[in-house]
Amino acid sequence: MTAPTTALSLNTRNLAEVADHGIAVPTYDRSAVRPGIVHFGVGGFHRAHMAMVLDDLMQAGLATDWGIVGVGVLPHDVAMRDALADQDHLYTLTLKHADGAKERRVIGSIIDYRFGPDDPAGLLELLTDPTIRIVSLTVTEGGYNVNPVTGEFIAEDPTIVADVEALRAGELPATVFGYIVSALRARRDAGLDPFTVQSCDNISENGAVAAKMFSAFARLVDVGLADWVGENVAFPNSMVDRITPATTDGDRADLLADTGVTDAWPVVAEPFFQWVLEDDFTSGRPPYEQARVQVVADVQPYEHMKLRLLNSGHQGLAYFGLLGGSIFAHEAMANPDIPVYLRRYMDEEGTPSLSPLPGIDVEAYKDSLIERFSNPEIRDTLARLGAESSDRIPKWLLPVVMDNLASGHPIEVAAAICASWARYAEGHDETGGRFTIVDRYAERLQEVAGAQAEDPLAFVRQEQFFGGLAEEPRFTAPYLAALTSLHERGAKETVRRLAAHEPL
């Protein structure tokens, strides 16, 4: 296969030529695909799992009435709208193996994209259409508007206040909460079945969280509507496991250099894929189980495995790696102490906090995590892994701490990971280079982290994130030891001691 001398645009008209240049393309008739799913938050993660699964089913002649209509409601979603529109909503998915091999395909299951501010009435009409039976979400951990300490809905958020007032007045919404609750109200009033709300975000019990938050929003609008939602709308829990780095200009350039095809927003991911989904749907679902999805009665054990091993492992990798001068995950993993320290966390702290996992070889799963973190082809940035820490650490790592405190299992490594976050939040590495803290609470986190010289427990005293752990000596002792070591010895020596079970 030789790349053409001129760039080949990705669109429906050029699919045959794209296939001639080494990229698998849809063989089904996309014009016959009908919408059945509306998805809020189209990014790389959604396109590397849910959209891929639907494409697999369509390739097998199934689920052609479950086409995906993507939706964005935030200003930055304009970029995705434009990128997909120019390509007839096609995009490439590249799976990168550690040995350098690449599997490339074009995904065709997204058939349209709506940007809410362009036509809010039209979007609401789409959501009210009875052919839409699932509304799915990847709106990030912070998109559910949950107070991280109380677990309750943040009703005083200005965007929420405005949308509640709009719905009470019969006006058009602006947020994902407003659109979904407005559509559910319209369907109820019209005597139509509600759609399923299917969360795909990295949140423990994501379906239960979505149910609680959307019901809380509905209750602010109309108590009777909230009761109806609670009785009639399914919110299945799910867990997705696939490392999907943010798309870079390098990914676009690699695709062009290798194939001659241009894609404004390609997706790159690892080969590993796992999606576990609770079989709880209001108005039917695609035959997910025919496309490698584990459809089960209870997702929680599998979800805890991922959140407490993979996602918490990423937190353990991100801050120590960044403080030690690495940029990419595989660079940090090249330090032989980091895989050993991460495996110590997984074995001694993460695994004891898990429930039994039928059909899963946990030891093999942990082995695979070390391999996946080390994959040099993925080029996953530590900055991505360390972003939005205030949403991630409380939901992924601190439950391990709390469970192990209750059961008497160790927490030393988890406490050190928390200390590495506190040190990272100071905003600079060990040579004085500055970090850009990507977090909705970035300014406050840096301010509190800057007070650690006077009060080493200042960071942990943020009850919004840590609850009452500042008063728990079994946590504060290893936390303070790690924070002191990070300031006095640096990240690499601290990791070496953790890997060797040496005192800090």
Structural key phrases:
three-stranded mixed sheet
* Strands, count: 13
Range of helix content: 40-55%
Query: What is the structural class?
Result: alpha/beta
Segments where pLDDT lies below 50 for 5+ residues?
A: none
Overall form: globular
Number of helices: 21
Strands in their spatial order, largest beta sheet? 6-3-2-7-8
Major sheet size, sense and barrel closure: 5 strands, parallel
Gyration radius over CA = 23 Å
Mean pLDDT: 96
Task: Write up what this structure looks like.
By secondary structure, the protein is α/β, with parallel strands linked by helices. Helices cover 45% and strands 12% of the residues. The chain has 21 helices and 13 strands. A five-stranded parallel sheet has the order 6-3-2-7-8, sandwiched between helices. Strand 4 and strand 5 form a beta hairpin. The radius of gyration is 23 Å and the shape is globular.
How are the SSEs ordered, and which strands pair?
Elements: E1 8-9, H1 15-20, E2 35-40, H2 44-48, H3 50-59, E3 67-72, H4 78-85, E4 91-96, E5 102-107, E6 110-115, H5 120-128, E7 134-137, H6 158-168, H7 176-190, E8 196-199, H8 206-221, H9 223-232, E9 238-241, H10 249-259, E10 261-262, E11 267-269, E12 274-278, E13 293-296, H11 300-323, H12 329-333, H13 337-350, H14 362-373, H15 382-385, H16 389-407, H17 412-424, H18 442-449, H19 463-466, H20 473-488, H21 491-499
Parallel strand pairs: 1-10, 2-3, 2-7, 3-6, 4-11, 7-8, 12-13
Antiparallel strand pairs: 4-5, 9-12
